[in-house]
User: Which sequence fits this backbone?
């Protein structure tokens, strides 16, 4: 059984040893430069571990021996699931490993935005020391709108409750039991956009959620709201977001994800002072990375044993 790690995932020595105990292992520690290199890396492997590369229809049709893809992530969009099904390739993912990490990162971004920490930090490093330009906002008493109430969205709501925030939520499949436990009120998306001082996104990337927040949705938002996105970059129309940030319709955005990753170096978001940006690190704590790798490898072990778990569904 040949196993290939096609790009950079978190691997400690114990993880590598476990992989070697179940097959011949080849590990790549960087991103393939193009689709042809990705095809060569997978080659005649039976199993591929994928952290960041996209296994498109073209890739999957070119790798004839591939039987399984173990995605080192919660999202399944890295693999063309329709083609994988047609070719009888099993695709698994790692749900739930980074709930705490991502939820905490939401508030790292939010507090940095609300208290203008990046601007204040630059100010002090320039040798200046004037408190007046950095008047912030208190979270207590303000309304947070949580779009997507899976495990991460609900954990964000729990933390928001500790900050004494009013919590609104929108989800296609509402969890009323959890909402009652947390003190979270479900409303339609338009109401959430109109009433929220802070909006945070926690939805997977699907054809339905791509472009979920566009210009017309931004127009509904409160003047001067804060937008946080730690889910997927493509759920927001980035051009519309940039215009809203320039006009201060959206006072601040905290973004861990982008429409294109890595984003181009001339991305206009980089020139805006009313943004806090991070390179898709919401998941990246020591604890979460280890959990992700352990489950990712366990998915492979179960596949070899004929017991599929954590399957990606079309």
Assistant:
């Amino acid at each position: 059984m040949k196993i290939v790690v096609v790009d950079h995932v978190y691997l400690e020595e114990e993880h590598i040893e476990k992989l070697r105990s179940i097959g011949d292992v080849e590990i790549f520690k960087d991103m393939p430069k193009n689709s042809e290199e990705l095809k060569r890396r997978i080659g005649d492997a039976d199993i591929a571990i994928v952290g960041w590369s996209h296994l498109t229809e073209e890739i999957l049709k070119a790798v004839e021996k591939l039987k399984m893809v173990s995605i080192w992530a919660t999202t399944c969009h890295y693999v063309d699931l329709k083609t994988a099904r047609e070719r009888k390739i099993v695709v698994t993912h790692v749900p739930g490993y980074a709930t705490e990490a991502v939820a905490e990162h939401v508030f790292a971004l939010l507090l940095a935005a609300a208290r203008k920490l990046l601007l204040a930090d630059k100010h002090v490093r320039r040798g200046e020391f004037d408190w007046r330009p950095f008047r912030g906002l208190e979270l207590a008493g303000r309304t947070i709108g949580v779009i997507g109430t899976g495990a991460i969205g609900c954990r964000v709501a729990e933390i928001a409750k500790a900050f004494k925030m009013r919590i609104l939520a929108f989800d296609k499949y509402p969890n009323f039991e959890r909402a009652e436990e947390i003190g979270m009120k479900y409303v339609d998306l338009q109401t959430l956009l109109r009433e929220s001082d802070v909006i945070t996104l926690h939805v997977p990337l699907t054809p339905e959620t791509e472009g979920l927040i566009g210009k017309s949705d931004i127009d509904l938002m409160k003047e001067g709201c804060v937008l946080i996105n730690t889910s997927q970059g493509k759920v927001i129309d980035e051009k519309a977001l940039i215009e809203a940030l320039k006009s201060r319709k959206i006072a601040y955005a905290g973004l861990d994800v982008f429409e294109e990753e890595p984003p181009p170096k001339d991305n206009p978001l980089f020139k805006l002072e009313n943004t806090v940006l991070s390179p898709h690190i919401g998941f990246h704590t020591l604890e979460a990375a280890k959990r992700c790798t352990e489950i990712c490898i366990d998915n492979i072990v179960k596949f070899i044993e004929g017991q599929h778990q954590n399957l990606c569904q079309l």
User: Anything to note?
Assistant: The longest strand covers residues 250-255.
